[in-house]
Amino acid sequence: MASILTAKEVSGLLRLTEATIYRLAARGEIPGFRIGDSWRFEMDEILGMIQRKKERQNGENKSME
């Protein structure tokens, strides 16, 4: 079963403010879903997003060399 996080938990994990997490989620920049007025996030999706961003940045850095 997937681990579900709150916006507060994601903000701590990513070291961003809760307001930033809400804004990014509303824009679709981080994977999340709403239950009523609350945002929820799957841990695996957040970790996957972080990994993809790291891989993209590493690829960009290598192409600049």
Biggest sheet: strands side by side, in what order? Answer: 1-3-2
Tally the structural domains.
Answer: 1
* Total count of strands: 3
- Contiguous low-pLDDT stretches (5 residues minimum) are none
Pairing-aware structural class of the strands and helices?
alpha+beta
The chain-level mean pLDDT equals: 92
Name the helix and strand elements from N-terminus to C-terminus, one letter apiece.
EHHEEH
- How far is it from the N-terminal to the C-terminal residue, by CA? 42 Å
Q: Helical proportion? A: 55-70%
CA-atom Rg in angstroms: 13 Å
Determine the strand fraction and express it as a percent band: 15-25%
Report the major sheet: 3 strands, antiparallel
- Tally of contiguous helical segments: 3
| Coarse shape | elongated
Structural overview:
This protein has 65 residues and is of the alpha+beta class. It has helices at residues 7-14, 18-27, 43-63; strands at residues 4-6, 33-35, 38-42. The protein has one domain (4-63). The protein contains three helices and three strands; from the N terminus they run E-H-H-E-E-H. A three-stranded antiparallel beta sheet has the order 1-3-2. It is elongated.
Please write out the topology:
Blueprint: E1 4-6, H1 7-14, H2 18-27, E2 33-35, E3 38-42, H3 43-63
Antiparallel strand pairs: 1-3, 2-3
How would you summarize what this structure contains?
The protein has 65 residues and is of the alpha+beta class. The protein is 60% helix and 17% strand.
